[in-house]
Amino acid sequence: MSTVERPVIVAGYDGSATAQQAVMWAAAEATSRNFGLVVVQAVSLPALPEMASTPAGWVTPQFNVDEQQALLGHADSELESVAAACRKAHPGLDVTPRAVSGRGPETLAQIASDAQLLVIGPSGRTALPRALLGSTAAELMHTYRRPIVIVRHPAEQPDGKRVVVGVDGSQTSTNAIDFAFDFADRHGYDLLAVHAWSDLPLDALAPVRTWDYAWQDIHEKGERMFAESLAGHRQRHPNVDVRQVISPDRPTHALLEHAQDAALLVVGSHGRGMLKRALLGSVSHAVAYHAPCPVAIVRPPEDPEAE
After folding, report:
1. CB neighbours of 98 closer than 8 A, spacing ≥ 6?
2. Distance CA 128, CA 131 (A)
3. How far is CA 65 from CA 50, 51, 71, 100, 173, in A?
4. Residue 140: left (phi > 0), alpha (psi -120 to 50), or beta?
């Protein structure tokens, strides 16, 4: 049964600076959509001690209920402070803090099962470099079946005024385009649609030699794909200024290059099929690891390829 009964955005929180930034990003997005915000902190149960032998026999370990309640109480207090900061920044925003016992990825996925969006930070409490993701973010990218945004640390985010979206003509790409146009329209941003020609040989790590291919044909096919993919969205969002780029580079490289000064990078998940994904890797996961801005990964709610 769903744990979300109204349109909300769910933000994961663990006390880290990256999580705080993710929550504030989620608060701004919830305000722009007129949704509620649920801020969730998953509290792991204290580890059980090993069984011990006593003169009276073996003693079975038990959960320390007092310690568990103390952890939940501390999380509740911290979440109330976070919720207060969200309400101060966005008066009128409905914020619900929730401290829940459980493992982070499963807890967030369950609470956000019907949410409009899940927002998380990349690295948790660890001092990991930007190119790494924490275990919670990495796992949720594989298992969560609704749109998810990974928000980078504020020091790493450019003050961008445009949204970048990857376009490849697939249904998953269409879902990403929907998300990107809606976000750009509500925030008054421009939109840059990027198509990277990716029908590469298997030695895909080698440099791309564009002169080996019929670039004119590739460009014409790309223009037709843009026309088919973007036409309806342009009509529904006439205020969004749209530019198109056809790149001879691989999708990951092209998207990261154009996201250097972006407010948000939007990609679909699993747009090109199992074989190509196995050979070239998932573009959505690659940009989530390396992007200089927040990344939205958009997957259909009933994606049969979800792992």
Report:
1. 38, 39, 40, 41, 79, 111
2. 8
3. 17, 18, 10, 14, 48
4. alpha
Apex 200 CA angle, 130 and 300, nearest 5: 60
Q: Is residue 277 part of a domain?
A: yes
pTM for this prediction: 0.81
* 52 within domain boundaries: no
| Cα–Cα distance list, 229 to 45, 73, 222 (Å) | 48, 50, 10
The 8-class DSSP code of residue 161 comes to -
Terminal-residue alpha carbon distance, the chain: 21
Q: 68: domain CATH number? A: 3.40.50.620
Buried b (16+ CB within 10 A) or exposed e, 172-184: bbbbbbbbbbbbb
Encode the chain (307 residues) as per-residue pLDDT tens digits: 445 566 999 999 998 888 999 999 999 999 999 999 999 998 876 555 555 555 665 655 555 666 677 778 888 899 999 999 999 999 999 999 999 888 888 899 999 999 999 999 986 554 444 444 567 888 888 788 899 999 976 555 556 789 999 998 888 889 999 999 999 999 999 999 999 875 544 344 444 555 455 667 777 887 888 888 899 999 999 999 999 999 888 888 899 999 998 999 999 886 444 444 433 347 888 888 888 899 999 987 564 444 4
Q: Are residues 178 and 105 in the same domain?
A: no
Helix/strand/coil for 189? coil
Angle between the N-to-C axes of helices 171-187 and 215-236, in degrees from 0 to 180, rounded to the nearest 10:
50
Q: Which two tokens stand for residue 240?
A: 């969004």
Cα–Cα nearest to 105, from 113, 94, 115, 97: 113
